[in-house]
Amino acid sequence: MQAVVRYIRQGAAVLLCTAYLLVGTPAAELLKIPVLIEHYREHQAELPHISFWEYLSLHYFKGTVYDADYQRDMQLPFKSISLVSVLLLALQPPSDTWRALNHPGEDIEDKHPASPQNEPISPYLSRLYPPPEA
Description:
mainly alpha; 8 helices; elongated
């Protein structure tokens, strides 16, 4: 029974990690590999002598070519990556904004008064390099 529970837990962990990679990263582009192969076969029908490396070079290393199959080219993996998760992370407000939103009456500067110039900020800094004793 414990072995079954362990396999279920491992399976759930693999499933959740895979779901995270496919949703939160550009790894979802790997699901478009069948489109890459199918489009290569389309090119082979038109140009029988084209190799797979020439095909990859044509679509990934020659820049963007606006030809008759441009829309089909944009369906290939890593040609048009959606970076929604990166944008959502970049648009997240700083953490101190949440404190100001949750407690609008409090002034943040009152909580952290400036220290006088002649005293160290922390009492432990004066112990860091004490003067030599005679």
